[in-house]
Amino acid sequence: MTRNTRTTGDSALNAARRARELRALGDDPQVDVLVIGGGVTGAGAALDAAARGLRTVLVERHDLAFGTSRWSSKLVHGGLRYLASGQVGIAHESAVERGILMRRTAPHLVRPLPQLVPLLPQIRPSQRTLIRAGFVAGDALRRSAGTPPALLPRARRVAAAEALRLAPTVRRAGLRGGLQAWDGQLVDDARLVVALARTAAAAGATVLTRVEAIAVQGNSATLRDTLTGATLDLRAGAVVNATGVWADTVDESIELRPSRGTHLVFDAAAFGGLTASLTVPVPGSISRFVFALPAPHGRVYLGLTDEDAPGPIPDEPKPSESEIDFLLDTINQALREPLTRGDIRGSFAGLRPLLKTAEDSTADISRKHAVLHSPSGIITIVGGKLTTYRRMAEDAIDAAVARVGIAAGPCRTRRLPLVGAVSGAARDRLAIPPLLIERYGSAASVVLSADPSSREPVAPGIDVTAAEFAYGISHEGALTPEDLLDRRTRIGLVAEDRAAALPAAEKLFD
Ligand SMILES: Cc1cc2nc3c(=O)[nH]c(=O)nc-3n(C[C@H](O)[C@H](O)[C@H](O)COP(=O)(O)OP(=O)(O)OC[C@H]3O[C@@H](n4cnc5c(N)ncnc54)[C@H](O)[C@@H]3O)c2cc1C
Fold first, then answer.
1. Name one GO cellular component term (predicted).
2. Most exposed among 95, 192, 219, 354, judged by the fewest C-beta atoms under 10 Å?
């Protein structure tokens, strides 16, 4: 069996490579590890396995980041929320993983984001004391994880003028400054997944989108090409189920209790040039907040809810009316001019893949991840969160290696930069617009080298060029216009923008 230890191979994913690799797999359908699910967990697991020198296949039945991994708040958390519920271990793990992402693996995709809690009259002194104590504990977590204050500054109190500079639409009457802390923010969650999958491909993994795993067992699965209907029977040393909220459809011994989280999308102008996460405590709660986040394409995302979501899992979950009211009512308490439904440009909702427990509320279920072994031998990795994907992947592949006794190297992902990773002086030297560096890192030079005629926006007022769409197809595995609009970029979050950019995306597939 071939052992592969490359990490600098070709990272470009595209239709030609997919066809070639499917053919090769048909000729030799025996691999070390099959990973099912192309979200952040599966892409991370495929990278971990391939970087250990294992012959690895990742299959995703739709597109990379088709599931929960594109509906997150796009925050790389230090784990403060978990401290509030006494989960010190998971909080520390989050802070460590945040540091790894920001310093080594994806510094181009994660930026420091100030978090501002405006001190308005409705915040009671006891609430203020708790928030301040939480921020101090957040600093301690950052220190314990070895993340320097030069990257994520210390929490502090800011004057009213500074609070208004960060969040210009905050109510002035009674504003007594703000509490400010720092966390990490992804340029986009789907772009992290694409970068992971491409890095896995460069390390030798076979990454196949629009390929579904059916009839899955501990050492085999049937792979169905959803574009042609063709199938092939794959044998694997270990099978890792990383299908998130669909985990119980692959392995029926898994019991989940999904919880829905909703965000609303606004034009940045509705928040007057917000440059921080405007964070407003939910009345009556000491650990829940609603926050408005500056987002790509000139937008602001407002989240977040936590609702039990029983029943069949939809491909695209939808926000409920009561979630929309809750988000607007909570943020409006902090704004000078209330926002209305008329200001909303779009919305999105995702389902958290939480394990079933005896807790009353989904908000109380631990976000800790779990590696589960089913009677058939399938290894399922579930729970957790985007921030800790790397640790989840490491635990899953450790379990795979141990189960079948495959000869493999140690986990290498702590120090393995993702495709495009660039920071510090090397980043400063790139003569490339910052917007493109945030999206593509050092690989932006390839996007920029495209024909000058393709540097025009894909539609008026949209900050994405035809060259970026073309790169999505040649290097990032986009196989349809939807992949370009809804995952390689997030144009699709606003229906009007999506309609305007659709012809440019369709033209590239003519
Ligand atoms: C609203 C919300 C906000 C969040 N915000 C944050 C945040 O700010 N920071 C953070 O760290 N975490 C956050 N999280 C958590 C984080 O988003 C999830 O934990 C993570 O994205 C789950 O990723 P996953 O890869 O496990 O699942 P998914 O992303 O759902 O991936 C599973 C994939 O498996 C595929 N699949 C299913 N069945 C098959 C099959 N039979 N064959 C092939 N493929 C299959 C699906 O198509 C899907 O793409 C948030 C979650 C939600 C819901």
1. glycerol-3-phosphate dehydrogenase (FAD) complex
2. 219
Please name the residue ranges forming H helices in 214-270.
Answer: 247-250
Q: How far apart are the first and last CA of the chain?
A: 40
Whether the model pTM is above 0.70: yes
Beta strands 307-308 and 346-352, pairing class: unpaired
CATH number at residue 267: 3.30.9.10
To the nearest 10°, the Cα dihedral for 148, 152, 156, 158? 140
208-257 pLDDT tens trace: 999 999 999 999 999 999 999 999 999 999 999 999 999 999 999 999 99
351 lines ligand 1 (CB under 6 A): yes
Round to whole Å and give the CA distance between 307 and 160. Answer: 34
Confidence check: pLDDT of 439 > 90: yes
For residue 61, how far is its CA from the centre of ligand 1 (angstroms)?
14
Cβ of 420 below 6 Å from ligand 1: no
Q: Is 66 in the pocket of ligand 1 (CB under 6 A)?
A: yes
Domain span including residue 454? 450-507
Q: Which of 34, 59, 68, 380 to mutate to test the pocket of ligand 1 (most atoms within 8 A of CB)?
A: 68
Q: What is the pLDDT of residues 459-479, one digit of tens each?
A: 999 999 999 999 999 999 999
Do residues 340 and 381 both lie within one domain?
no
For a substitution probing ligand 1, which of 48, 243, 248 has the most ligand atoms within 8 Å of its CB?
243
The answer as to whether 78 is a domain residue is no
Residue 403 — very low, low, confident or very high, per pLDDT cuts 50/70/90?
A: confident
State whether 177 and 302 are in the same domain: yes
